[in-house]
Amino acid sequence: MGAGHAHRLYRHGHSPVHGLPPHTKLAAGFAFVVVVVSTPREAMWAFGVYALLLTTVAYAARVPPGFLLKRLLIEVPFVAFAVLMPFVAEGERIDVLGLSLSVSGLWGAWNVLAKGTLGVAASVLLASTTELRELLLGLQRLRLPPLLVQIASFMIRYGDVITDEMRRMRIARESRGFEARGVRHWGVLAKSAGALFIRSYERGERVHLAMVSRGYAGSMPVIDEVTASRAQWSYALTLPGAALVVCLLGWSL
């Protein structure tokens, strides 16, 4: 984890949010999502306040609305599932624009859309203000099991390596005149997938042997010790703290 690794979700900047230690942002994001999920779905106004809080964070982090909205498209499958719920759910039904919709399905769709969108938005904001290497250091600082942190680190490091290998194999096939046009070409693609698996496995074996030869004994050395002051913790926990107040009001009103 000593070398940086940029990712497409990250947006370089020097905002106060970018400058926070990664483990404070991870804790704040997780706490915010827990509060949002704990909010009763009937308190519709509360979700509007949550959206306003995230908008404030995005403004403080100098993340453009277009950047955020474009990356929210990842939740499209969940939106499709939510749209179907009023049609397939059972129970009391009402007519809306000539369509017979389930009341419980409408509430369920709203619950999924509201909480899912807020959770994805919070995750996108976290990723856009924190580099992958910093996220791993933050997880390590939060005492996540070291083995899980190492697995995540290797996935990040070698995901692009495998992707590049797939690209080279595709170019090699196309240079030989191959173009997948139907089911009869699936055999070639399956063989390519098998070859990619074998190459990836062999690369993993070589990497492991290289690590062992350099003294690896099951744990990675900590190069950067990430710490946070009380003021930084207070600043980071402002978001979940404000959300908690809204959640309590949602249950009491």
UniProtKB/TrEMBL annotation:
The keyword Transmembrane helix applies. It is found in: Cell membrane. It comes from the Bacteria. It is a multi-pass membrane protein. Keywords: Cell membrane, Membrane, Transmembrane, Transmembrane helix. Its main location: membrane. The keyword Cell membrane applies. InterPro entries: ABC/ECF_trnsptr_transmembrane, ECF_CbiQ, ECF_transporter_component. The chain crosses the membrane at residues 43-60, 72-89, 109-130, 233-251. It holds the Pfam family CbiQ. This is Cobalt ECF transporter T component CbiQ. The lineage of its organism: Bacteria, Bacillati, Actinomycetota, Actinomycetes, Kitasatosporales. The gene is cbiQ.
